[in-house]
Specification:
Elements: H1 4-18, H2 25-34, H3 38-50, H4 73-80
Helix pairs in contact: 1-2, 2-3
Amino acid sequence: MGKTAEARAVLAQLLELNRKRYIPPEFFSEIYAALGEKDEAFAWLDKSYDARSAFLPALLHSPLFDDLRSDPRFPEMIRKRNLDR
């Protein structure tokens, strides 16, 4: 939405806070996806899977991840994680 500086500031705050307490990895994946940083978004989605996040099935329909759906890694991730069932 054109608020890149604000998103980066929130991201920096969350990354710092994550050193002291748990922040769900999907928060980071959402921000990175919004910033167009697909590699980081996918890395945090992997962390969400490792953390057994209940959030992952929602990414199939969440508009926050629309830009990731065209990436070949997206359907592969869905398939590997059995999220398409």
